[in-house]
Amino acid sequence: MMLTALRRLAGRAASGTAHALWRRLRAAAAVTADRPGPYAFHHLGERTRLAFPQGTVFGERYISLGARCVVGQDVTLTVGMAPGLDLGPGLRITLGDGVVLGRGSHIVADAPVDVADDVFLGPYCYVTSTNHSYDDPARPVGLQWPRAAPVAIGAGSWLGAGAVVLPGARLGRNVVVAAGAVVRGEIPDHTVVAGVPARVVRRWSAEEGWQPPLRTPAPVPWTGPPPGE
């Protein structure tokens, strides 16, 4: 009995130590403007943080990250089809201020991808300005030259978990993209889109408000006591 109890205590101590070390490692290996690690971004804004572990990151000199951005764990930011390519002048990935990229999301760019201020991406979103082509039926799709077109996501927009934004898509301001939707083409301001391909399912105007009307009242900030009290 005593031996079993000692083993349990040792196991708990080892678990606690491992978790403490992992927390310290994550804090030390996060990327910020003061601690850029191995990355040489074109710009890395004040109070922006890339959580550790980072996903695949290359082509940093073509990537500009604004201030107060939160880039979650395992987020991929890649420019070009492979590391080390010379793509000439100009940026390819631009994040405005206050952008949030959820865990496991990807931004993959050949043509420019412009994400405006205060855009929130849920986990595992995929935004790309390049896509495979399949014009030649005799050649493997993966070996054919891809198509590329710029992507723009307007300020204040929100992409739900697993959303996909394809080359050439242009989202307006405060657009809501439902989880799992696949977006292409032009999306107007103040709309909600859903489906594959994504279609407008709700829109707002100053004259009519939200149509169809929202089914629940607008939430209000919690003013009660802290949880647990």
From TrEMBL:
CDD domains xref list: LbH_MAT_like
Coiled coil: none
Domain of life: Bacteria
Transmembrane segments: none
Chain segments carrying region Disordered: 210-229
InterPro entries, per the entry: Hexapep, Hexapep_transf_CS, Hexapeptide_acetyltransf, Trimer_LpxA-like_sf
Gene3D superfamilies in alphabetical order: Hexapeptide repeat proteins
Keywords (A to Z) from UniProt: Acyltransferase, Repeat, Transferase
Any one Gene Ontology molecular-function term assigned to this protein's record: O-acyltransferase activity
Any single Gene Ontology cellular-component annotation: cytosol
One Pfam family here: Hexapep
UniProt feature, compositional bias: Pro residues: 214-229
Family: Belongs to the transferase hexapeptide repeat family.
UniProt name for this protein: Acyltransferase
